[in-house]
């Protein structure tokens, strides 16, 4: 008869961040295990709380499925002698399988006939196989493991009890000296020890003892209670998914409560309030219906509402202490000036070899100037950008950022405004840290974008100069993220500045420093490769094929916004049958180019009409083509090149480029070279794996 | 409950759990963990159960006695049990009950917190224990000490006495806490808080402190080479406190800072190794005692 099966791992409080993944592993591993064991069952359900991971399998069959297995023996020619009798080899084979020659049948494999026997494998009793579950318990992976007491085993947290039930019977095994049984524990304070008679009782028995074992149900309880609170208090409580997830995994029985703090703290920057509530205390901030932060918070208690007012009071006290600290910092910080903090930056090291933050700021200032010049910005904008660069890091020296490091830049904006800086400059201080993640928000202001690029370039070039190149998962300074950020800003702002010239400017700011550069060519090469990888990563995200990426970055990244457009256009043309003839013409030119250094075209040496036509077409499109390139018009430029298609085909069909006469040959090659250079200014089309159908 | 009674209660409770009651160690230190009763005794195979109050000096947290939450010197109640007992969480929660904290009337949580002290090459996994949202105890299973793997694993409980007291006595300001009938923290500690802050931030003799650091470091090395683990360790503690004074005064740049920390760490590592070697030479006496 099929029976229900339950396994529960009882633990000291698991880190909330490990729980969901561990439950998922438990499900997948159990499902695979049962399939491998050929044990059928109805349903697998998993559970998790901070103190337990559990799996309930319904109606598990009493026996493994029996199977018929085919066993392959020697080939027929070996199994039978010339008279057709079974050889020793055949008899030996059947014996070894517990069969006789009467059981032999034949089957062809790759045209050769082999002897086979069928073997029956009787399914074993499920109960006897279940202790293997031990391997599932020990194979669950956590982000960080520990040892305890005298155990050699490593696990996320110590294992304290184990439940293993097959129907009403305990499945015997042990892990880290903990033996299985049928006893579990309810809520740490509200519940008692429970004996589970039958696996199916698991959820309900624990519910009686104040443990909600289903994490989705706990989440729903929290959401429902928050909704009630919203209606009762006439407020809005925005749900942060990550916070909700963490909170549901910090409790076994959630009770939501509302607390409040003094209105005077609302004068603190809202980010400070929100960080104190969310990050430090795991509270949900509360908003008015007009989206204004209120002096209230929502907490979730692990337990029922007994003496809830004591809990509320305690939590209020903790938050008040944090906010009063923050208020103290806020007031103290404002007693100083930006110059005071800038002076302090001189004593703080940014990176041992790259100098202090002050040194970094100076480099970023000169980079900012150069970028403004390259972009031909007016003096007012340039001066604003320089001011942003100068004061971009001052907030790092404030008490507030010392306490709330995640608020760097945000505090910078607040304080800069208070200290009387222009609003746009203040905003740009915050924005120069953007984007914070690979696909995070980009700076909005122009000056914020410039300083963001300058700051990131300085870090990347500096780190690579001193040999801190990211490898594998090692990227402590987040250079990859910053490089991607630079490219995204360049694309977003559509700036006409090539990445190569930016890198040159950045390198030049390090010229007069004491940093030793061992191999300049090597640095240039590493930087080029590093950025090519980042561009490649970004373009792949936009579904551009690797060969197209190669083609558009072969000559360097150039003006990134244009590179991106060309990649998109070529990615389409790559599969466009109408482009086949054009592509073939252009590639023909590229393949022949470079056979001579000669670039002088002498029209008098033209012998055929097709030569003249190609040259004229070339001359006709040159202006429009360059105009399109200068306007980053990827479609337009390619359209101009496509005018060359027919003349090129005619030219190759009607002329021997490699003519016997040296002058004629060199003249034709010169024409080819001119056109090839023109095409290469667009992309190295020979690298594309053209996929147009015939 | 006043602080004195809290301490007495915890001492009685852990004494009943077979912990040796020790007194505070007489060299300045930043945390109870740094007492040789924890840092050295947690190493090696010998069983070790101990409880003590440790006055902990954090020069950088000095606030001239003006901040309601921060102190130049606060008190920790430290418990070490090696190997960690299987029911350690229950033992801990019962100690809170002994202090009059009824878990049914509060929200007590174990929130992940992995502790690390790079200066001592020590690291552990565990939790901060939250009482209605306030961190009252650091609960750590040592995994590494002085760069050596902890085996068996010792568990460390560090109660923040003033934190806990501010909850039990329902006071917002640490200086209002009652130490004994009618005697407050302010009465006992306000003057030293003010003077130590003034000394640390304004008056300390920087040059002398740098000299002392070098001398202490030299003496620690020399003493260790003679196989004298405990005296060598005392000098490491002195190095550490001297460094904290210099650091608080802001005379150590960030680069130099890492340099100093690694100098102290190297000493601590050597001493940890020397301690285990010395215990082994003595035949791990505490281990034998238990077997008898």
Task: Walk me through this protein's architecture.
- The complex is a heterodimer of chains A (694) and B (292).
- Chain A is an alpha+beta fold and 694 residues long.
- Chain A folds into 5 domains: 3-63 and 126-208, Alpha-Beta Plaits (2-Layer Sandwich); 67-121, no CATH class; 215-326, no CATH class; 340-541, Hypothetical protein af1432 (Orthogonal Bundle); 566-687, Isoleucyl-tRNA Synthetase, Domain 1 (Orthogonal Bundle).
- In chain A, 50% of the residues lie in helices and 14% in strands.
- In chain A, strands 1, 2, 3, 7, 8, 9 and 10 form a 7-stranded mixed beta sheet that branches. Chain A has a 3-stranded antiparallel beta sheet with strand order 4-6-5. In chain A, strands 13-15-14 form a 3-stranded antiparallel beta sheet.
- In chain A, β16 (349-351) and β17 (355-356) form a beta hairpin.
- Chain B is built from 9 helices and 11 strands.
- In chain B, strands 1, 2, 3, 4, 5, 6, 7, 8 and 9 form a 9-stranded mixed beta sheet that branches. In chain B, strands 10-11 form a two-stranded antiparallel sheet.
- In chain B, α6 packs antiparallel against α7, α6 (206-225) packs parallel to α8 and α7 packs antiparallel against α8 (254-281).
- Chains A and B meet through β15 and α10 of A and β4, β6 and β7 of B.
- Chain B: This is Glycine--tRNA ligase alpha subunit.
């Amino acid at each position: 008869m099929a029976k229900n099966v339950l396994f529960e791992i009882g633990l000291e409080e698991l880190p909330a961040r490990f729980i969901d993944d561990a439950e998922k592993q438990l499900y997948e591993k159990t499902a695979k295990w049962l399939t491998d064991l050929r044990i059928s069952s109805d349903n697998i359900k998993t559970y998790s709380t901070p103190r337990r991971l559990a799996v309930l399998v319904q109606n598990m069959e009493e026996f493994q499925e029996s199977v018929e297995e085919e066993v392959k023996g020697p080939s027929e020619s070996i199994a039978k002698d010339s008279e057709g009798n079974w050889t020793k080899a055949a008899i030996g084979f059947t014996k070894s399988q517990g069969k006789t020659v009467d059981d032999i049948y034949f089957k062809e494999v790759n045209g050769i006939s082999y002897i086979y026997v069928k073997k029956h494998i009787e399914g074993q009793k499920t109960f006897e196989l279940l202790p293997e579950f031990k391997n599932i318990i020990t194979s669950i992976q956590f982000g960080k493991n520990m040892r305890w007491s005298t155990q050699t085993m490593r696990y996320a947290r110590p294992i304290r009890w184990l439940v293993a039930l097959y129907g009403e019977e305990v499945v015997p095994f042990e892990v880290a000296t903990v033996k299985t049984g049928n006893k579990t524990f309810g809520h740490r304070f509200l519940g008692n020890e429970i004996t589970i008679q039958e696996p199916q009782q698991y959820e309900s028995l624990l519910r009686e003892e104040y443990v909600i074992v289903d994490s989705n149900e706990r989440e729903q309880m929290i959401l429902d209670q928050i909704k009630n609170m919203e209606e009762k208090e006439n407020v809005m409580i925005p749900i942060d998914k990550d916070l909700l997830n963490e909170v549901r995994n910090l409790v076994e029985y959630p009770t939501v409560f509302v607390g409040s703090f003094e209105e005077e703290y609302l004068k603190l920057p809202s980010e400070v309030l929100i960080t104190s509530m969310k990050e430090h205390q795991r509270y949900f901030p509360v908003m008015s219906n007009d989206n204004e932060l209120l002096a209230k918070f929502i907490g979730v208690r692990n337990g029922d509402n007994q003496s809830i007012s004591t809990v509320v009071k305690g939590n209020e006290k903790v938050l008040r202490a944090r906010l009063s600290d923050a208020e103290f910092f806020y007031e103290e910080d404002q007693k100083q000036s930006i110059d005071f903090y800038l002076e302090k930056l001189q004593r703080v090291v940014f990176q041992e070899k790259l100098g202090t933050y002050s040194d970094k700021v100076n480099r970023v200032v000169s980079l900012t100037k150069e970028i403004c010049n390259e972009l031909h910005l007016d003096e007012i904008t340039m001066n604003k950008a320089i001011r942003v660069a100068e004061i971009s890091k001052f907030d790092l020296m404030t008490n507030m950022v010392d306490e709330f490091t995640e608020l760097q830049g945000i505090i910078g904006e607040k304080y800069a405004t208070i200290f009387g800086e222009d609003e746009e400059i203040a905003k740009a201080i915050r924005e120069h840290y953007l984007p914070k993640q690979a696909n995070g928000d980009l700076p909005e202001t122009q000056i914020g974008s410039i300083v963001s690029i300058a700051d990131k370039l300085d870090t990347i070039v500096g780190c690579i100069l001193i040999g801190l190149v990211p490898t594998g998962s090692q990227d402590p300074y987040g250079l990859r993220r910053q490089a991607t950020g630079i490219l995204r800003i360049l694309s977003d702002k559509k700036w006409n500045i090539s990445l190569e010239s930016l890198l040159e400017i950045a390198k030049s700011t390090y010229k007069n420093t004491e940093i030793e550069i061992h191999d300049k060519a090597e640095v240039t090469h590493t930087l080029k490769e590093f950025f090519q990888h980042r561009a490649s990563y970004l373009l792949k995200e936009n579904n551009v094929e690797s060969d197209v990426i190669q083609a558009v970055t072969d000559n360097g990244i150039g003006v990134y916004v244009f590179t991106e457009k060309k990649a998109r256009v070529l990615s389409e043309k790559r599969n466009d049958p109408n482009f086949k003839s054009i592509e073939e013409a252009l590639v023909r030119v590229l393949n022949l180019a470079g056979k001579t250094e000669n670039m002088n075209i002498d029209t008098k040496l033209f012998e055929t009409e097709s030569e003249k036509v190609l040259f004229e077409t070339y001359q006709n499109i040159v202006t429009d083509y360059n105009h399109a390139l200068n306007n980053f018009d990827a479609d337009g430029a390619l359209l101009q090149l496509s005018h060359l298609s027919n003349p090129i085909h005619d030219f190759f069909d009607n002329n021997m480029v490699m003519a016997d006469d040296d002058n004629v040959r060199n003249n034709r090659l010169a024409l080819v070279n001119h056109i090839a250079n023109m095409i290469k200014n667009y992309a190295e089309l020979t690298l594309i794996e053209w996929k147009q159908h015939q | 409950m006043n602080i004195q009674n809290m301490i007495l209660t915890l001492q009685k409770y852990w004494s009943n759990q077979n912990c040796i009651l020790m007194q505070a160690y007489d060299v300045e230190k930043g945390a109870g963990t740094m007492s040789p009763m924890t840092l050295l005794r947690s190493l090696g195979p010998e069983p070790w159960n101990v409880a003590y109050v440790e006055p902990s000096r954090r020069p950088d947290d000095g606030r001239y006695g003006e901040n309601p939450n921060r102190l130049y010197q606060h008190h920790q109640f430290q418990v070490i049990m090696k190997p960690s007992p299987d029911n350690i969480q229950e033992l801990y929660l019962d100690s809170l009950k002994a202090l009059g904290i009824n878990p049914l009337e509060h929200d007590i949580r174990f929130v992940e917190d992995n502790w690390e002290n790079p200066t001592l090459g020590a690291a552990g996994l565990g939790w901060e224990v939250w009482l209605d949202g306030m961190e009252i105890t650091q609960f750590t299973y040592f995994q590494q000490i002085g760069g050596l793997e902890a085996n068996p694993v010792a568990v460390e409980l560090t109660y923040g006495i003033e934190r806990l007291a501010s909850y039990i006595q329902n006071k917002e300001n640490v200086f209002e806490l009652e130490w004994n009938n009618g005697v407050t923290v302010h009465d006992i500690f306000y003057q030293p808080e003010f003077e130590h802050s003034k000394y640390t931030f304004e008056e300390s003799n920087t040059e002398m402190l740098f000299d002392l650091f070098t001398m202490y470091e030299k003496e620690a090395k020399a003493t260790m080479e003679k196989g004298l683990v405990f005296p060598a360790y005392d000098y490491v503690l002195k190095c550490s406190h001297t460094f904290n004074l210099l650091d608080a005064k802001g005379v150590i740049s960030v680069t130099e800072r890492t340099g100093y920390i690694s100098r102290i760490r190297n000493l601590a590592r050597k001493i940890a190794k020397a301690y285990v070697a010395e215990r082994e030479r003595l035949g791990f006496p505490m281990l034998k005692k238990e077997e008898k």
